[in-house]
Structure formats: structure tokens, C-alpha cells
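Final report, closing paragraph on structural work. Over the funding period we assembled a curated collection of sequence-structure pairs, and we close with a single example.
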Amino acid sequence: MHGPLGDLRNVMKTVSASLLPSSQQQAVDLTKSLFTNLVNIDLAAKELDYAKVTASYQKAVNDFDTFLQLIPKA
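Its predicted structure, as stored:
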């Protein structure tokens, strides 16, 4: 992934490292899963597989939402 999505991966890795120790591994796993799902969206789009695009998109959104919930509230 390049451009803004590539930057997002780096930001998520940085945030993961700064989270509470009990949340760090889950954050790393969510980052990997999110980007796997983004790749799956791209592949499914090339195959014109709308159902797979939609499913992968929803998984990506869920991963990102869960990641955001790991960030302590101020």
C-alpha cells in the first residue's frame, strides 16, 4: 500500500507501540488484519466480486473501529 494508506500503516504501528502494554499486541494484530482486508478489497475488485469487496470492507471497518477503541480516552 502506498500513499495515505501506507502512511496509515506507519501511524498505526506508532500508536500501537505507545498503547498500554496489555493492548499493544491486539493493536498490532488489528493493524495486520486491517491491511490484509484492504488487499482483499483490491483483489476482489479486480475479480469483480462485489460480495467479497463488501465483506472485506466491513471487516476492515470493524478492525479500524476496534483499534480506535484501544486508545485510552483523555
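Helices lie at 4-18, 21-46, 50-69. The domain at 4-14+21-69 is CATH 1.20.120.290 (Four Helix Bundle (Hemerythrin (Met), subunit A)). We thank the funder for supporting this effort.
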